[in-house]
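Example record

One chain of 291 residues, shown exactly as stored in the release files.
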Amino acid sequence: MRFGVVILPQYPWPEARRRWRKAEELGFDHAWTYDHLSWRTLADQPWGATVPLLTAAATATERIRLGTFVTSPNFRHPVPFAKDLAGVDEIAGGRFLLGIGSGGTGFDAFVLGQPELSPRERHERFVEFTRDLDVLLRFEQDGPLSFDGPRYRAVDARMVGEPAQNPRMPFVLAANGPKGLRLVAELGQGWVTTGPDGDGGDAWWSRVAGLSQRLDDALDAAGRDRGTVDRYLSIDSGGTYSLSSSGAADDAVGRAAELGFTDVILHWPRDGEPYEGTEAALDAFAERHLS
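Predicted structure tokens for this chain:
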């Protein structure tokens, strides 16, 4: 089992730097931040930009993998974003993990004056966005790249320079529905889920098991080895914050392992909701699981 931690982009750099460095020192395998312009109940609180923060984190760390949890197509175009990603990955020495989702339905979905999209339209955009990034970020480029899709267009885009990872940085795709899981089977090196909405406790875990089985089915249908896709589970979903008690955290890790997840992700504790807790609880978790 590998372990990851999400550090929200809310802190002045000296404090943020301490957290990213400590995540590495504690032994976490990967550290993430949200890719939003603001987020839910924290919309009126300080909230930094994703790419500069991850770039700074890359210079402050040496070993730990870094990623987006998860990138949103609500406010991004593949061409400039691919350039940003390639730059961060080069600075990080090939440690970047690109989490990609379909984009939420909150503030980010409308801040640029966008029309409201149906679930089908959001999925279609997700597929187009992911496939465009796949082409742009790959090692085997030969000259300028152009594409002309329903939502994204590029004319002679130039990345310039070899990617830091071959053939490209790993994609960790967020998906729960059958169409999204088929995209994981097509392009993902990893699958990440927060599980189903609305359930908690044993019902949530039962539905997470069902999602994992659906991924198996999608991989089988695509003719792909199930072991070629890493499985990431946010254990701060299902109505319980994992660091609320040592028992909750250890139970979640054990259940995730039983279901075949290769990685679990939790959130750095905050002074208030959501993810309210103490750094001592994080330290204790690391001592039990990361030592």
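Notes: The mean pLDDT is 96.
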